[in-house]
Design a protein that fits this description.
With about 240 residues, the protein is mostly helical. The protein contains ten helices and no strands.
């Protein structure tokens, strides 16, 4: 490795400054960046988590543009300097919150097997709840709703690509599950697995969007929907 390559190589556990940091200043000093010890790395991860949790809670309440960055830092119990190190701009923060919520949505759907519509006896199980903590969800158990994830996708290209990739993965997963049920004779012959997978994904996303605007007023009952679709899909 050349001297230039060595100087540009940064280990994953190396402390790296945020957008305001000056790489030129580091080069002038000639000092190697310090490696983070376990305690420092854990503290840094907790700071990022706290900022994401605070931002997610406020974004759910007020949208992406309303809560001030100082307010987010105050709720997180962290400084503006810590925010700059981890994110540096509102768009980067929006993207980080949305991507984490997208991962949680995927985990929820996989665990619930698309509202349980393809699983025998699913109607007797507890339906997936939006208030149920999932991988990547904030400590409060609430995650950014799909309406805001899609809003973030419209304003941040990185999130849009992640949403498309995630939906493609989910569709493949549901298609494979549907194919297995089809082979086992548990689905109607005319229920093509690929089409069914897309319909289930659309139903799951659409249901969450409907719930976000008022599940009680719209009289949404996930159990009833699950039972109805299972009846329609049985041979």
């Amino acid at each position: 490795m050349s001297a230039e390559q060595a100087s540009n190589s940064v280990s994953p556990d190396t402390e790296v400054g945020g957008p305001a940091s000056s790489e030129a200043g580091s080069a002038k000093s000639g000092k190697r960046r310090r490696r983070l010890g376990p305690a420092r790395a854990e503290a840094k991860a907790k700071t990022r988590q706290a900022l994401l949790d605070a931002a997610e809670t406020l974004f759910i309440q007020e949208g992406f543009d309303q809560p001030g960055l100082d307010v987010i830092c105050s709720v997180a119990g962290r400084t503006r300097g810590a925010y700059n190190v981890h994110f540096g701009s509102r768009e980067h923060l929006v993207a980080a919150v949305a991507l984490r919520a997208l991962e949680a949505f995927e985990a929820e759907l996989m665990a619930g097997e698309a509202l349980g519509l393809l699983s025998p006896g699913a109607a007797d199980r507890q339906p997936v709840s939006l208030s149920r903590p999932a991988a990547g969800a904030p400590e409060s158990g609430r995650r950014l709703p799909m309406s805001l994830i899609l809003h973030a996708a419209a304003r941040v290209p990185e999130v849009r690509e992640a949403v498309l990739d995630t939906f493609a993965r989910i569709r493949r997963y549901l298609g494979e599950m549907a194919a297995q049920k089809h082979t086992a004779g548990e689905l109607r012959v005319d229920a093509a697995p690929t089409s069914l997978a897309l319909a289930l994904l659309a139903a799951r996303v659409g249901l969450e969007l409907l719930e976000s605007v008022g599940s009680q007023r719209l009289d949404i009952d996930r159990r009833e929907l699950s039972e109805l679709l299972q009846t329609l899909l049985r041979p």
